[in-house]
Amino acid sequence: MFEVVKSDSKAYRVDHFPDVCPQCHHAIEPKYEMTRELGFLQSHVEKRIDVFFSCPRQSCRASFIAFYTVPPGVSSQLAIYDLDSVAPQMSKIPTLPDRVSSLSPSFVEIYSQADVAEQSNLDQICGCGYRKALEFLIKDFACHYHPAQIETIRGATLATVIRNHIDERSIKTRAELASWLGNDETHYVRKWSDKDLNDLKALLELTVAAVNHHLLADHYQSEMKPV
What we know:
Layout: E1 3-6, E2 11-14, E3 31-40, E4 47-54, E5 63-69, E6 80-87, H1 98-103, H2 105-119, H3 126-145, H4 150-155, H5 158-165, H6 169-184, H7 197-223
Parallel strand pairs: 2-6
Antiparallel strand pairs: 1-2, 3-4, 4-5, 5-6
Helix pairs in contact: 2-3, 3-5, 3-6, 3-7, 5-6, 6-7
């Protein structure tokens, strides 16, 4: 299967149209606008065409470009052009629990920036951002439950805060594991070579879930007194 797009003088076959809008991130059947041929990218290797689309959703209507190239070793006259990428990309804002957001706005800001870096393929720096986000979440949580020790908590290492100022076992365990992998993202030599960024994110999500559950349980315990 393929789609056909046309420039002023020629028709091109492309493997498929984008099925997700890069701006609103909804599944779509995009509206085809026009095609522009850009000629050779690498002298004799591959040609590229830009195809202009727009999002059909009433609440979006964004315009974007899909970049197509001829597969290596295939004649451009016979080729079905492959979709390489779509631009511009609007970063998708991660959804975090409201109670966690209220507890640690800095965590949300840092986590969101790390997520944007990851979506932009900045894989060498997004891990550092997730590690920093973890520290802010854990320290804000510890300060919330130990207000008399705020200055001590703020000046301590993340490992010390997890060990000495986090009482909830599920949070302590998950945060410790996440901190180990987070440290790997900032150090020259990795200690956990069989783990990667996806594992760090999974442990960070587990930590966020544990913090949220603890805050939610405290909320109901404070509101529902024995009668």
